Structure prediction request, 171 residues.
Amino acid sequence: MADFHSIWLMPRGDDAALFEDLVARLAARFGTEPFIPHLTLVGDMRRSAEDLAVILEDGFAGEAGFGAAIAEIVAGPSFFRSLYAAFRPAGRLLDLKRIAVERFGTGDVGSFMPHVSLAYGVPEAAGATAIAELSTLLAGRIVQFDAMVVTASAQSIPIRDWAIVHRHRLP
Prediction:
């Protein structure tokens, strides 16, 4: 059976710690599973981690870390987008998505919805109650991203089994 992997952007330092704390608190509040906070560039690829790591290192050499503002907090009906911090598909986020689609040979720039999920599987009505609280804390915040990672993750892999298998720093 082939491996499934994804490419994620990772928040830096304090931003990562804030998202990790929020994910843990929201998972406890809603009785959902915690996960590693991230922004998916390319997901669910049936390719080896080694192959993807080479492409990541070669294809993104020289890329620098950057910041992007959270546009809004959103609750929706999708399991993996039930409560999340949304970013505009613009600037470096959009540039990296374009490069990722080209380098990895999969994905779609037109449907790109950059976001960092805060909780998975939250009923839409319950997520809506958290929007005001989370908006006060997060809306407009500039999130710094300093790494791209290859993860053993896909919708077909249990969340508890997701793991970062290769990290590429964005200095």
Summary: The helical segments are 13-30, 49-59, 91-104, 124-138. The beta strands are 5-11, 39-45, 66-78, 81-87, 115-119, 142-152, 163-169. The mean pLDDT is 96. The chain has four helices and seven strands.
